[in-house]
Amino acid sequence: MTPERFDHIMRVVELAKEIAIANSFDNDEVAAACLAGMLHDVARDLTPEKLLELAPAQNDVERMHPLSVHGRAGRKIAERWGIEDGRVLEAISGHVFGVSPENRVGMAVYIADVTEPGRQVNHDIRELAMTSLFRAYQRAVDSKVRYLRSKGKSVHPETLRVYEAICNLT
To answer: What is the pLDDT at residue 170?
Structure first.
């Protein structure tokens, strides 16, 4: 892991904790958010070959962009290390494409990952997350979909599924 990756991970852990506390997570949920934040990019710096070995591509987006499977590969590593908490595992695998809106831990980690201060973007989403986790999550996923479409890039089918699910909840 590079020093830059480690610094990013530590910022995600701290922000996920802040978001969890601001949204009245219980102590177990706060701990789960911290653990998921710590492990979310465990596979991020692996080679494309190793990523696809841990998490075989399931569609054209993943075949064209092996880095896109680093969340699922990270989940596989976390499982091998004995992590069993479904909220944590879904947060790790879903931090790339999105998580079920029932997974508050996953939403906190997703938001923390895309808004941590080192990225210098999405300040408004980070601020909103301190008062409305779900609305911030909606905005984060919407922002990702709009950004990818504006660049003419393919949107992962799982991101589209999450996007449609959260749009239908409003």
So the answer is: 62
- Work out the angle between the directed axes of helices 70-80 and 27-39 (0-180°, nearest 10): 110
Q: How many domains does the chain contain in total?
A: 1
User: Which residues constitute the domain of residue 155?
Assistant: 3-167
3-state secondary structure of 79: helix
What CATH number did the domain enclosing 99 receive? 1.10.3210.10
Report the chain's terminal Cα–Cα distance, integer Å.
Answer: 39
How far apart are alpha carbons 14 and 30 in whole angstroms?
11
- Render pLDDT for 2-37 as a digit per residue (tens, 0 to 9): 899 999 999 999 999 999 999 999 999 999 999 999
pTM above 0.90, yes or no: yes
* Nearest CA-CA partner of 71 in 89, 52, 50, 94: 94
Question: Which residue do the tokens 């290390």 mark?
Answer: 81
